[in-house]
């Protein structure tokens, strides 16, 4: 498969999202998402379930009925045992076959999460037959913890070849601040990863070839601008807008970083993706989504390993070599929300982010 990079040129005007290649309801899916998430007449909970249902019916059910698309799919899953839940973050050293390989997996903040992380590391060691896998604790909801993590990475290695910014929370019902007072959806999904990437960039720049992969979402189509007020104000907080905003910020940052590095460090590529509606713990904050995904639609959601396939594709596939700044879904480049390409909005986001992290 040759990834399509010639995105259609868009003229200024109303935002009409479309996929690069129309397939399996792609265009329709984008329209449904945007329609649902921008209509103020539809209550929030219906929006959430509407987006989930549209995704399941337009994408997962056809796949479920007609089987997986075989064409062009590299056997990456055989090379890296992974699931979205397990591949919270991987930093690899000397990825080329047979050489010493190091993978660092991070996890959340509780002791249980740490234990789960250590178990995940043991699992990866067995499945990948690679003993050089290590666990380092990271809480993306605290700048101090992110700094500690980065110092620890610096202590353990002198080069980073691959950084995966995958952790996330979704649909947190009320304003739940991070250590620095940002809404946890924006704070963890975007700002924490922004800070982490900034701190690790010096090590990434030392790699002969490096990739940065970020997990965004189709939810980034759901808003055309980032609601900065709702990031630090409980009053202005909107659970759906803030999640969509955190993912729009991720796509914007992908574009910005790719553009910046293209000039100075063409050895580094930056891409982001939507993994599809997957059966993971992501929906546990919302009772409606939790009920739908645990009782109603369990069987119709993708397994986490299916979602992780897109992630591992961007991390390892030779087909992605040299491609940077794109939004992917199911191993294909997709049309981004045009707001993510707006240079003014990108600069506003970077200025805001630098101010928050004190740079
Ligand atoms: N599932 C879907 O349908 C779907 C669709 C679109 C996009 N996504 C995106 O996919 C990514 C992975 O989500 P998932 O579906 O795999 O959900 P998940 O099962 O809930 O996994 C989320 C991961 O994020 C970690 N995390 C949460 N808060 C953290 C923090 N403060 N510091 C460090 N790590 C933290 C969690 O670690 P602990 O469990 O250890 O706390 C967990 O490993 C997210 O960015 C999500 O937005 C998922």
Automatic annotation (TrEMBL):
**Pfam assignment, any one:** adh_short
UniProt keywords, alphabetically = Oxidoreductase
- Keyword Oxidoreductase in annotation: yes
Query: Which molecular-function annotation in GO is an example for this chain?
Result: oxidoreductase activity
InterPro entries attached here? NAD(P)-bd_dom_sf (IPR036291), SDR_fam (IPR002347)
Family to which the UniProt record says this protein belongs: Belongs to the short-chain dehydrogenases/reductases (SDR) family.
Q: Which PANTHER family match?
A: PHOSPHATIDYLINOSITOL-GLYCAN BIOSYNTHESIS CLASS F PROTEIN, PHOSPHATIDYLINOSITOL-GLYCAN BIOSYNTHESIS CLASS F PROTEIN-RELATED
Return the protein name. Answer: NAD(P)-dependent dehydrogenase, short-chain alcohol dehydrogenase family
């Amino acid at each position: 498969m040759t990834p399509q990079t010639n995105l259609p040129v868009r003229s200024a005007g109303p935002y009409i999202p479309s996929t690069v290649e129309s397939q399996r309801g792609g265009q329709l899916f984008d329209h449904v998402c945007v329609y649902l998430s921008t209509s103020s007449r539809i209550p929030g909970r219906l929006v959430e379930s509407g987006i989930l249902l549209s995704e399941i019916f337009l994408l997962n059910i056809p796949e479920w009925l007609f089987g997986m698309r075989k064409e062009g799919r590299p056997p990456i899953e055989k090379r890296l045992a992974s699931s979205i839940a397990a591949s919270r973050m991987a930093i690899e050293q000397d990825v080329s076959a047979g050489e010493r390989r190091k993978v660092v997996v991070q996890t959340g903040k509780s002791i249980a999460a740490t234990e789960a992380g250590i178990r995940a590391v043991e699992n990866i060691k067995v499945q990948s037959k690679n003993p050089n896998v290590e666990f380092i604790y990271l809480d993306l909801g605290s700048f101090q913890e992110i700094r500690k993590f980065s110092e620890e990475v610096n202590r353990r290695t002198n080069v980073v070849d691959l950084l995966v910014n995958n952790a996330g929370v979704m649909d947190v019902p009320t304003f739940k601040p991070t250590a620095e007072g940002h809404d946890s959806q924006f704070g963890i999904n975007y700002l924490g990863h922004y800070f982490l990437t900034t701190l690790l960039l010096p090590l990434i720049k030392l790699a002969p070839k490096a990739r940065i992969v970020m997990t965004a979402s189709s939810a980034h189509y759901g808003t055309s601008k980032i609601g900065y007020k709702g990031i630090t104000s409980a009053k202005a907080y909107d659970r759906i807008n803030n999640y969509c905003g955190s993912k729009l910020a991720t796509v914007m940052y992908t574009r910005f970083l790719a553009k910046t590095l293209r000039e100075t460090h063409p050895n580094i590529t930056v891409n982001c993706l939507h993994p599809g509606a997957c059966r993971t713990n992501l929906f546990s904050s919302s009772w409606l989504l939790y009920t739908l995904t645990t009782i109603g639609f369990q069987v119709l959601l993708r397994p986490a390993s299916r979602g992780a396939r897109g992630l591992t594709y961007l991390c390892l596939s030779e087909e992605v070599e040299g491609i940077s700044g794109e939004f992917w879904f199911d191993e294909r480049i997709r049309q981004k929300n045009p707001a993510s390409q707006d240079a003014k909005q990108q600069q506003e986001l970077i200025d805001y982010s630098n101010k928050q992290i004190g740079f």
